[in-house]
Amino acid sequence: MCGIIGYCGHRPAVPLVVEGLRRLEYRGYDSAGVSFVQGGRLSVIRAEGKLSGLEKKLESQHVFSATSGMGHTRWATHGPPVEKNAHPHLDHSGRLAIIHNGIIENYQEIKTELAQKGVEFRSDTDSEVLVNLIAHCLKDTGGDVTRAISKALSRVEGAYAIVVMSVDHPGTLWATRVASPLVMGVGTGENFFGSDIPAFLPYTRDVVFLEDGELVRITASSWEVMETASLKPVEKKVNHINWDVQAAEKGGHKHFMLKEIFEQPKVIRDCLLGRISQQGGQVRLPELDELPVPERLHIVACGTSYHAGLWGMYLLEKYAGIPVQVEIASEFRYRDPILPKNGVVLAISQSGETMDTMAGIKLAKGRGLPVIGLCNVVGSSISREADYVVYSQAGPEISVASTKAMCSQLAALLLLTLYWGRRSGRMAEDDCARMLRELQAMPQMLEEALPGLRAKAQRLARHYAEATSFLYLGRGPSYPLALEGALKLKEISYIHAEGYAAGEMKHGPIALIDPHFPTFAIALDDEFFPKVKSNLVEVQARAGEILALTNEGLDLAVEQPWTLPRASGPLAAFVILPAVQLFAYEMADYLGKDVDQPRNLAKSVTVE
Ligand code: F6R
Description:
The strands form 4 sheets. Strands 3-2-4-1-10-9-11-14 form an 8-stranded antiparallel beta sheet, with helices on one face. It has 17 helices and 24 strands. By secondary structure, the chain is α/β, with parallel strands linked by helices. α4 crosses α5 and α14 (about 430-465) packs parallel to α17. Fructose -6-phosphate binds next to α9 and α15.
């Protein structure tokens, strides 16, 4: 999410760090900052908003003599995007600075403990807690920074990539990671840290990929990797990469869309971070604790976010017992809808800027209904307008076609369902705990499945390259995914596609079926399978060819079966989603379309 760069070498560090931050801009940010040691002082300079704000501030400073430094672009997770929350953060004595990407789950308890010892905090961030914890541990390690970091991190739960700088060791930087990206660049007389390779690509292509639980200390002329917990040395391989800057931004993938599809396991992990109780059986959403469990819910959204909302309806009704209406925002805002006083509006938006969704919120607020925003972009207009905000925590989404954001919305909607289902007593503790376990296991299952799904999508794209129309069919919670599959295909490959509820097909679209009009069906091993199967028999009776997402062992004879790993109940959505996304991606790529920037579309739709 955030962009990180650290440098120890022989060049002026601050301009190099700022330039590195510029190359990480594609990750998105809301504030930026640098730190460096000069004249025996540890300086931190930060600015809200775009990088140019930071550059402007730096113009008036004499920052050219420091040859080590670090910088950060922030994508807010804790606290609003204002200067005091921007990184780097200093400990309260001003001797250590930290930049941090990730979320410290137990920061509140550590903060309370440090506050009792007299530490004063200047920001709302978990990162400031962490740097103070390290500073606190320095007392026990006789000023040894490496050991203090190791000691502090033994207490920390969560995901992080950090770089630490000390006024007492101006030419040294430390970095470590758990479940957040961090790489090291090895140069001649200079070494680098980056959240991503582009941070230092103009200076070196020799890269060390750091693993979770590894701690690194660099100077201009040395680097050493050790285990964070034991400080035992770890042997690492230096990899030479041939990527150009553009390929590096895409993590070696051909397009951002593909990168983002492959990020979905991490997106699920990030969405769950800090939201599952220590014992594992309960969902924690403190941002909603003051709001009573809704008696009725009106979900308002557009496009892909609307499809996520439709999927959420199936879950919220079934498991949390909440009556749900899902509304296309552009219709809702002009419909004069009946909004009973006991209702709550849930507005879903990746960008948090969609004008129609925003107008829906204003309408609901005008009628006195509380509004929850489920947004990805922290500090966005919708997140500010809503009374309550739940962040989906997908990280910046660059490709115009939304992929990983929907995955995070599904994960958040499942969490909301379990959270309200337990609070209302509608859901048994065991059922909630079981679903959470399954959700926590999903990232690994997906990591294993994604390469195979892509290979299959590639083969299918070649097979269907001549098709000019597709009918997508699904039932129950798979119906919104059929809609999403059709939307993805049309928006990036420009092939006409319609998503339909499988049972509705016989009421009209069946007239379209012929040997040149393929059907993309979702026919998994669930309670809807027998019904979907009979709908598919109707297609076959009209000589229509069928591509079906299905599971091993099901009695289904179709031309193109695509067997997915089994996931129980609504969790299947997390496997269906990348399959439909990858099919659309491979079709568009094979047809030579501009995948990341399809014609006529914009990433955030701030017009009517
Ligand atoms: C489709 C897509 C759009 C958005 C829609 C809503 O791939 O990206 O349909 O989902 O414009 O955008 P947000 O979620 O930002 O409100």
